[in-house]
């Protein structure tokens, strides 16, 4: 079989990262392996995101670069995948003559057939049909692990229709994969070297409800029994559906990392209503209290939108108040952006970009102080870390002098990045063992703005 190279450019959320991995697996039987060098590629796939205007622009600016590349290399095949592909479909082929195919969010498993058909008979293909059968993911072959941690999509689509959001329109209706399929894929991932799995869905709390499958906490319990799997994470949870059963799972399941991403979006009840989020800030506080009562150390993160149409200063103040009151470990904050199909694009009270940015920066400043304070409070504590590899500073291409100790990087249970050195008894020197994939205790020395720094004592490591 000939050796061909595919370059996959991934924008957007973890679901796109997962789908890009599926693309790689699906293309292997056609003789493709992945390259990190665009110029070498025989096939380029741009896996796109449409959640904000900026993400869409980023996709088109990358795709635009392929025009020159295709002039140099006539045989290059270029495809657009993901949420912008689903949204724009044939328009992309009409606008961009150097794109050969457009593959929608429900067509992932058909990539192999699309590429083979273009290789054999040329032509241009658009496949954006919706396919309700999410079991298509199950046809995928064995795992080849690139890293100790990986994603698994357990459900597709979304039925919540938040008024600002494009996702339900480009990912379709919510559907859940069967537990058997999920468990066998996780087993295969663990066999391939993965220690940590993040379960993905737009709202994992409604997992299986439509299909009459086990509930999400029940699924967690089944996954917990998988031998060799060390850590379980998940994203995302919609606050309206977070159950007491899930809170209990944090208490009962050792492998479930003590972190929850529970996006509140905003602190004003009036705006939450207009966003169609179906909870109030009081409901949200109640959920946070339950989580913290059950699990006092749990790390809590959120997504926030500022500058939603009609957001008055007092609404924005309510968001700042909520952020101060909850004291999130971290937030992902965005300036509101009009999206196709999303009702909010038609709402009154749009705000100039300058004011949206000003509010965004103010919110980020408030959170930065909280994040820093929380990280400093961790100084002196021992955190258990899953080591992901050497930190960037220690890679061979860095200009750090050889005499500096090797720096490792990993994540704490609460999902904070902890960079650390290893100390032999008293000597302060580093050791030449590979810690990648190990789960080890590390003492936090410094709490920084967005990460932690620490030291692992060799005598404490059970290697
Ligand atoms: N299903 C997840 C979120 C998926 S989109 C959930 O419900 O939490 C990720 C984040 O992008 C959202 O949480 C929201 O904060 C942000 N987002 C979505 N649409 C947006 C828009 N039109 N403008 C700005 N931010 C948006
Ligand atoms: Fe978008 Fe809301 Fe669905 Fe999340 S829950 S994907 S924000 S519609
Ligand atoms: Fe973006 Fe689609 Fe994910 S719009 S955030 S890639 S579901």
Name a few traits of the molecule.
six-stranded parallel β-sheet; single chain; Transcription Regulator spoIIAA; alpha/beta; binds S-adenosyl-L-homocysteine; 463 residues; 33% helix; binds iron/sulfur cluster; 4 domains; Rossmann fold; binds FE3-S4 cluster
**Structural domain count:** 4
What's the β-strand tally?
A: 19
Bound molecules: S-adenosyl-L-homocysteine, iron/sulfur cluster, FE3-S4 cluster
Broad CATH class of the largest domain: Alpha Beta
> So what's the overall shape?
globular
In the CATH hierarchy, the architecture of the largest domain is 2-Layer Sandwich
Strand content: 15-25%
Structural class by SSE content: alpha/beta
- The helix tally amounts to 13
Biggest sheet features: 6 strands, parallel
Helix content percent band: 25-40%
Strand order of the largest sheet: 2-1-3-4-5-6
Kindly report how far apart the N and C termini lie.
41 Å
Word description of this protein:
The structure is a single chain. With 463 residues, the protein is of the alpha/beta class. The chain has four domains: 4-127, 3-Layer(aba) Sandwich (Rossmann fold), CATH 3.40.50.12160; 133-257, Transcription Regulator spoIIAA (2-Layer Sandwich); 267-377, Transcription Regulator spoIIAA (2-Layer Sandwich), CATH 3.30.750.200; 382-460. 33% of the residues lie in helices and 21% in strands. The chain has helices at residues 14-27, 53-72, 82-88, 90-95, 111-121, 167-171, 179-191, 216-224, 244-252, 269-274, 281-294, 313-326, 353-376; strands at residues 4-10, 32-34, 43-48, 77-81, 101-103, 125-127, 149-153, 155-156, 175-176, 196-200, 231-235, 259-261, 299-306, 330-335, 382-390, 408-412, 417-423, 439-447, 452-457. The strands form five sheets. The chain has a six-stranded parallel beta sheet with strand order 2-1-3-4-5-6, sandwiched between helices. A five-stranded mixed β-barrel has the order 15-16-17-19-18. The longest helix has 24 residues, at 353-376. The chain starts with a strand and ends in a 6-residue tail after the last strand. The mean pLDDT is 93. S-adenosyl-L-homocysteine is lined by residues 51-52, 164-165, 167, 202-203, 236, 238, 263, 265, 303, 305, 334, 336-337, 339.
């Amino acid at each position: 079989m000939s050796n061909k190279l595919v370059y996959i450019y991934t924008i957007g959320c973890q679901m796109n990262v997962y789908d890009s991995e599926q693309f790689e697996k699906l293309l292997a039987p056609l003789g493709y392996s992945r390259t990190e060098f665009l110029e070498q590629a025989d096939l380029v796939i741009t896996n796109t995101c449409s959640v904000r205007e900026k993400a869409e622009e980023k996709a088109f600016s990358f795709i635009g670069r392929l025009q020159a590349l295709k002039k140099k290399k006539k045989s290059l095949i270029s495809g657009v995948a993901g949420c912008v592909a689903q949204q724009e479909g044939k328009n992309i082929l009409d606008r961009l003559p150097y794109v050969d195919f457009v593959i929608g969010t429900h067509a992932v498993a058909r990539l192999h057939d699309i590429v083979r058909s273009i290789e054999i008979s040329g032509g241009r293909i658009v496949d954006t049909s919706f396919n309700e059968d999410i079991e298509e993911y199950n046809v995928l072959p064995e795992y080849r692990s690139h890293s100790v941690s990986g994603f698994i999509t357990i459900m597709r689509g979304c039925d919540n229709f938040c008024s600002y959001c494009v996702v339900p329109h480009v990912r379709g209706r919510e559907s859940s994969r069967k537990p058997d399929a999920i468990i066998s894929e996780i087993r295969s991932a663990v066999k391939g070297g993965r220690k940590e799995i993040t379960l993905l869905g737009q709202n994992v709390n409604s997992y299986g409800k439509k299909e009459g499958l086990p509930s999400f906490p029940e699924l967690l319990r089944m996954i917990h029994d998988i031998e060799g799997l060390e850590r379980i994470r998940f994203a995302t949870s919609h606050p309206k559906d977070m159950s007491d059963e899930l809170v209990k799972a944090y208490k009962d399941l050792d492998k479930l990392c003590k972190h929850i991403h529970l996006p509140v979006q905003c602190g004003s009840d009036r705006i939450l209503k207009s966003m169609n989020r179906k909870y109030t800030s009081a409901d949200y506080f109640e959920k946070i209290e339950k989580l913290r009562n059950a699990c006092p150390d749990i790390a809590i993160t959120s997504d926030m939108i500022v500058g939603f149409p009609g957001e008055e200063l007092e609404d924005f103040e309510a968001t700042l108040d909520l952020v101060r009151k909850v004291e999130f470990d971290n937030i992902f904050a965005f300036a509101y952006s009009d999206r196709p199909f999303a009702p909010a694009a038609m709402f009154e009270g749009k705000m100039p970009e300058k004011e949206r940015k000003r509010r965004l920066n103010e919110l980020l400043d408030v959170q930065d102080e909280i994040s820093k304070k929380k990280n400093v409070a961790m100084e002196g504590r021992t955190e258990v870390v899953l080591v992901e590899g050497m930190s960037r500073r220690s890679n061979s291409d860095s200009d750090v002098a050889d005499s500096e100790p090797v720096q490792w990087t990993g994540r704490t249970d609460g999902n904070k990045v902890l960079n650390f050195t290893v100390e032999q008894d008293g000597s302060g020197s580093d050791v030449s063992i590979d810690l990648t994939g190990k789960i080890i205790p590390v003492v936090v020395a410094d709490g920084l703005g967005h990460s932690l720094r620490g030291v692992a004592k060799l005598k404490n490591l059970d290697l």
